[in-house]
Amino acid sequence: MSVFLVIVGIGILMLVLSKDSVVISIGIRSYRGLYQGGLIAEVALVILFLILSLRDARKKNAAKKEEREQSADRQKLEADLPVNGRLTDVKVRELLKENASGKWRALQDAIGGLAAQMCQMDSYQERLANLLTSNQASTLGDTEEVLDQVEQYICRNIRKVLNYMTVYDPASQEDAAALEKLIEECRDANQEQLTQTKEFVFALTEFLNRQGDSSQDTYSLELYKKLILDSIKED
User: How many H-runs (helices) and E-runs (strands) does the chain carry?
Assistant: First the structure.
């Protein structure tokens, strides 16, 4: 567009500089018409140039704004889901809720299944804590650490899904199908640990119920702990 502006401007300038010869050649009326036509063309090109420039500027500003928003979202996600740090179950549930009610509403039920598993894990932790307190079994406090590690395992699994929720496009059927499969795999892996956790809590209950029995031993309890911790390490 700027090239046309320059060409028309040069044409008008040459027309003015060679006015006498042009008037002699084509007459004063034709000269005036040619000159006015050149001015009109120049003004029209200037207006068009300004309109296009304004449109381009708006597009660039919109692109920069979107980039800033995406960068802010990435920073927020990184802060909420640290790679090496401890994950907060409350924050993970909040992110699941945001996605289920927002861009991934189509997979709301599947996402809700992951949130329900986190609530189930909280329930096991609460029951264990109450069990230890009511039996004054402070020496078994390390069992709570086992459940805490299981919770972190579940949070890390869900963190992977949340990261894919960020990069997948909800408008793409292919992306939606891929995410749904990831959610299902995550749910299955979490459920396996929840099942082992439930068995561990009941094994601990039986152990406490045998307090004072001559047949009491900690073998089965330690075995459950080892199985749980090993399965988490393997994954």
Answer: 8, 0
Question: Tokens 């579940």 — which residue?
Answer: 154
In this predicted model, what pLDDT tens digit does every residue of 85-111 receive, in sequence order?
789 999 999 999 999 999 999 999 999
DSSP 8-state code for residue 235: -
Largest CA distance in the chain: 129
CA-to-CA distance for 131 and 201, rounded, in angstroms? 9
How many residues comprise the chain?
Answer: 235
Tens-place pLDDT, residues 185-206: 999 999 999 999 999 999 899 8
| Cα angle, residue 40 at apex, residues 34 and 41 outer, rounded to 5° | 85
- Lookup: tokens for 104: 């991934």
Of the candidates 193, 173, 194, the one whose C-alpha atom is nearest the C-alpha of residue 107 is 173
Dihedral Cα 24, 29, 31, 32, nearest 10 deg: 150
Report the predicted TM-score, pTM, of the whole model to 2 decimal places.
0.64
